[in-house]
Amino acid sequence: MQIKDFKDKKITIMGLGLHGGGVGSARFFAQAGAKVLVTDLKKEQELKESILKLKEFKNIEYALGQHRMEDFKNTDLIIRNPAVPDNSRHLETARENKVPIDTDIGIFFELCPAQIIGITGSKGKSTTASLCAEVLKKKYTSVILAGNIRVSVFDVLPEIKKSSLAVLELSSWQLEGLKQHKKSPHIAVITNIYKEHLDRYKSFEEYTSAKKNIFKFQNKNDILIIDKKLRNLAKDIKPELKLFDGTSQEAARIIGEIYEVSEKDIEKTIKGFRGLEGRLEFVKEINSVKYYNDTCATHPEAVIYGLNQFNNVVLIAGGTDKNLDFAKLNKVLNQKIKALILLPGTASNKIKTRKKTIKIENMEQAVLQAKKIAKPGDVVLLSPGCASFGLFKHEFDRGEKFKKYVQAET
């Protein structure tokens, strides 16, 4: 496969979205000289931010607010956004009409000339990918970080040389795209696997199977680094196996050692790493109350992890249900929090505690209530444990609104 193969081809991009992946795909194929059709169920106003980024291209057309069946029949290739389930009726129509379907990740793996380090997990994959990239930069001049971390793989492809190292954060949805190419990264890291995305997958086993694509097609010259609790997943594998404790720091140490980064540089990088936006991100201290944005905690286990970092927590949680079990979290809430402020959403009624609980209508009200309740020495933590659909554009919009109202004068 070569980029020139796409010239003058009709390409349907299914799902533009707001995270950058759809924009990256549309830009890539437009620059390759393809005739691009972007289709999304969201309307033009909702996608305004993404559309503006593509305004220079005359060879991109849009079909928004709907998916038209003809766009899945009369085309040479469909690029499926990872958020689109594989059993979509529009994709079924494409298959009936013998139209090939692919993903940005699948095509990237075909075109990328460099070694790929892929990192997945239910929790911690963004932090682990970012920290590994920082460690590698201590020795290598061309280290590229992309994937599920809001950087399109197509946007960075022109920068990548054979001597580069490509560090990719890979979601289960993205890993589905590797199956048809029978490709896995040279080095695969699995931080952990919890029950997650059960609104998308029929079972935990199906979700786990998607995660296993990260090492399914590795060979004996490749390496799998996996949380020792998941050892049973890696039976009868071809790559070299390395077990670790599941932390981003230990994963970064192992990656650094593989690529012969000095121990001194590894430890210095780990010590100086400040973390990522939306992941236990310190926002501000007001009247001796500290505010943290953990909007990327979209399942109960991630909330538990966040709560265990603090004492005297006023927790802002709740949102859209992903068919997850909150029983374990509810027990922890009784031990760890002072009060619970619940955002509206289909999962919010599952989150229960004996402690003071306040239901509100929006993020502004949530922060105002938290400011009233919190006393000096307390922590106000946004750690929703749920998806952001409905009330917010996406999880980062939720975090931005939290930070905005924390910063606001009251």
* Helix fraction by DSSP (H/I, runs of at least 4): 25-40%
The CATH topology of the largest domain is UDP-N-acetylmuramoyl-L-alanine:D-glutamate ligase
**Strand line-up of the largest beta sheet:** 7-8-6-9-10-11
**CATH architecture label name of the largest domain:** 3-Layer(aba) Sandwich
Stretches where pLDDT falls below 50 for ≥5 residues?
Answer: none
User: What is the CATH H-level superfamily of the largest domain?
Assistant: Mur-like, catalytic domain
General shape: globular
The computed structural class is alpha/beta
Radius of gyration: 22 Å
Give the number of helices: 15
Cα(first) to Cα(last) distance is 58 Å
Pfam family, one: MurD-like_N
Domain Mur ligase C-terminal: 278-384
InterPro entries: Mur-like_cat_sf, Mur_ligase_C, Mur_ligase_C_dom_sf, Mur_ligase_cen, MurD
EC number: 6.3.2.9
Task: Describe this protein's structure.
The structure is a single chain. The mean pLDDT is 93. The chain has 15 helices and 17 strands. The protein folds into 3 domains: 8-102, Rossmann fold (3-Layer(aba) Sandwich); 105-272, Mur-like, catalytic domain (UDP-N-acetylmuramoyl-L-alanine:D-glutamate ligase), CATH 3.40.1190.10; 281-407, Mur ligase, C-terminal domain (Protein-Tyrosine Phosphatase, Chain A), CATH 3.90.190.20. Helix 5 (125-136) packs parallel to helix 10 (248-258) and helix 12 (300-307) runs parallel beside helix 13. It has helices at 21-31, 48-52, 89-96, 104-111, 125-136, 153-156, 172-176, 204-211, 213-216, 248-258, 263-272, 300-307, 327-336, 363-373, 395-407, and strands at residues 10-14, 35-40, 60-64, 77-80, 101-102, 115-120, 143-147, 165-169, 187-190, 223-227, 240-244, 281-286, 289-293, 313-317, 337-342, 356-359, 379-382. The strands form 3 sheets. Strands 7-8-6-9-10-11 form a 6-stranded parallel sheet, with helices on one face. A 6-stranded mixed sheet has the order 12-13-17-14-15-16, sandwiched between helices. The chain has a 5-stranded parallel sheet with strand order 3-2-1-4-5. Its EC number is 6.3.2.9. Residues 278-384 form the Mur ligase C-terminal domain.
